[in-house]
Write a structure and sequence with these properties.
Elements: E1 5-10, E2 13-17, H1 27-41, E3 45-50, E4 54-59, H2 66-77, E5 90-97, H3 105-112, H4 116-123, E6 127-133, E7 140-143, E8 158-161, E9 165-169, E10 172-175, E11 180-182, E12 185-189, E13 210-215, H5 218-223
Parallel strand pairs: 5-13
Antiparallel strand pairs: 1-2, 2-4, 3-4, 5-12, 6-7, 6-13, 7-10, 8-11, 9-10, 9-12
Helix pairs in contact: 1-2, 3-4
Length: 234
């Protein structure tokens, strides 16, 4: 790659910036860089965290000094070619969209000048790319939500968002894997588990995967073991 930005964020951590804007096409480069850097650092790599436009490299400074680490990064990325994004898995996630479990459906609809049913249809009409993992085990930041549905985060976050809640914030969408505080606009809920907390294994969704939401009825949601308890007020 011609332009690679590097920032030292700790004595053993370097942030590599490949892009300045979020774009699904950039993920092919992020995934390729992830593979190349893992190979370049080998056993000296402690952790590597890819995200929307960056990769954070945590290396063993007992094996590499800062200058050597930067040299490995530049060498690994010099002849980088984009990865095959088709390798990511497509997941169809059934979700029950209803204002009892998705209290911001009306807010999103009003801002967009659409009906609630049209908001649901549009949210289910796209395949969303997993751009980053974090916040909680199994939590995946996905996008891009179409511009018409883009809605700012809540000014006052909720103390508790139910597990399985499907939300949007600006042009991102996500599923809460466990009960937690949150300020996203909640549209519905899914019964699909995103992470096995008992086994602490791999999350269901991985970087570069695609997610397609499917609107289902309350009875279908209940048959899948879904919790129909209304979302708590803020």
């Amino acid at each position: 790659m011609e332009t690679v930005g590097m920032e030292t964020v700790a004595m053993d951590c370097i942030m590599v910036r490949l892009f300045d804007s979020i774009d699904e096409q950039n993920m092919a480069w992020i995934m390729a860089a992830d593979q190349a850097l893992r190979g370049a650092f080998g056993e000296s790599l402690i952790d590597l965290v890819p995200s929307y436009t960056t990769l954070l490299i945590h290396y063993d400074c007992r094996q590499l000094n800062h200058t050597e680490a930067r040299a490995r990064i530049l060498a690994a990325l010099e002849h980088l070619t984009p990865a095959d994004t088709q390798a990511g898995q497509l997941h169809e996630i059934p979700a029950w969209y209803d204002e009892s479990v998705g209290p911001e459906l009306s807010r999103v609809a009003d801002r967009a000048g659409l009906t609630v049913q049209e908001v649901i249809r549009r949210h289910c009409a796209h395949d969303y790319c997993v751009f980053a993992l974090g916040f909680a085990p199994g939590y995946s930041f996905m996008g891009l939500v179409e511009q018409a549905l883009a809605t700012p985060r809540l000014s006052t976050p909720r103390r508790k968002v139910s597990a399985g809640s499907v939300g949007i914030a600006e042009r991102q969408t996500a599923i809460y894997p466990l009960p937690s505080p949150g300020g996203w606009n909640i549209l519905g809920r899914t019964a699909v588990p995103l992470y096995d907390f008992a086994r602490r294994g791999e999350p269901l969704l991985r970087l570069g995967d695609k997610v397609r939401f499917k609107s289902i009825s309350r009875s279908e949601f209940e048959a899948q073991g879904g919790d129909t308890s209304p979302l708590e007020e803020r």
